[in-house]
TrEMBL record:
One of its GO terms (cellular component) is membrane. Keywords: Membrane, Signal, Transmembrane, Transmembrane helix. This is LHPL6 protein. The gene is Lhfpl6. Pfam families: L_HMGIC_fpl. Residues 1-21 form the signal peptide. It comes from Eolophus roseicapilla (Galah cockatoo).
């Protein structure tokens, strides 16, 4: 198999894949914020939550559901800022995966990645990193204060 990448490019491709995978796992895990509510440990992420309160209409009380799950719909996410964070972070993870998988293919296919394609991929990767780790979180943290 011929490669269109230099040694530095191969290292970049593998590190990009590892970082993209870590970013996606972090996005899907519901452990962004940890706390307690009704004497139970709770946690949630952008679109998943664990141990969340539900109103029990038959007993007219609030009970804790001690399992992890997604919000019932996109509109069920608590705030507009949190929904924006979900979209921006998901978009960033998608861009990171796109670049990482393209770079890994460049390790196996000759003449797939040129200098120009590498520069464009670097720009897309920078944008994906800002979305998945920087700007998306800033919107969420701003809302919490």
């Amino acid at each position: 198999m011929a490669s269109s990448l230099t040694c530095a490019g191969v290292v970049w491709a593998f590190l990009s894949f590892l970082c993209a995978a870590a970013s996606c796992v972090g996005f899907f895990m519901p452990y962004w914020l940890l706390g307690s509510q009704l004497e139970k440990s709770v946690s949630f992420g952008t679109f998943r939550r664990c141990s969340y309160p539900v109103r029990d209409e038959s007993r007219q009380t609030t009970v804790m559901v001690e399992q992890c799950g997604r919000y019932a719909s996109f509109q069920a996410i608590p705030s507009a800022e949190w929904r924006i964070c979900t979209v921006v972070t998901g978009l960033g993870c998608g861009l990171l995966l796109l670049v990482a998988l393209t770079a890994l293919m460049g390790c196996c296919v000759s003449e797939l990645i040129s200098r120009t394609v590498g520069r464009v991929a670097g720009g897309i990767q920078f944008l994906g990193g800002k979305c998945s780790c920087g700007e998306g979180m800033r919107v969420s943290v701003w809302r919490l204060h």
